[in-house]
TrEMBL record:
Domain of life assignment: Bacteria
Protein name, entry field: Antibiotic biosynthesis monooxygenase
Protein species of origin: Shewanella insulae
Keyword Chloroplast in annotation: no
One GO MF term: monooxygenase activity
InterPro entries (alphabetical): ABM_dom (IPR007138), Dimeric_a/b-barrel (IPR011008)
Span of the signal peptide: none
């Protein structure tokens, strides 16, 4: 069995779009939480209002394949929901040291 993977997705959020960005995340979280291989997710908000990334999503998945299958289903189910000016930079990571 493969080790879990971690999705880390930092979001650049326009100041006037913070609530819309959180609602966007919640819609995606609710969908992904129902998919096989989903383990958990947390949304972090920067304490520094001037930080480049105001929100960071950290999600744990049972495997890389589970995440990619769920992401494909999500794109089909939710379409292309947009929040003007919101941009993310998602990547999967594996723990290599503790």
């Amino acid at each position: 069995m493969s080790a879990p993977v971690t999705l880390i997705n930092p979001f650049k959020v326009p100041a006037d779009k913070l609530e819309a960005a959180i609602e966007y995340w919640e819609a995606h979280r609710d969908f992904m939480a129902q998919q096989p291989g989903y383990l958990s997710t947390q949304l972090h908000q920067s304490l520094d209002e001037g930080a480049t990334y105001q929100l960071i999503n950290v999600a744990i998945w049972q495997s890389e394949a589970d995440f990619y299958q769920a992401a494909q289903k999500m794109r089909q189910a939710l379409g292309h929901i947009q929040v003007e000016g919101l941009s993310g930079n998602p990547a999967l990571y594996r723990v290599i040291r503790t």
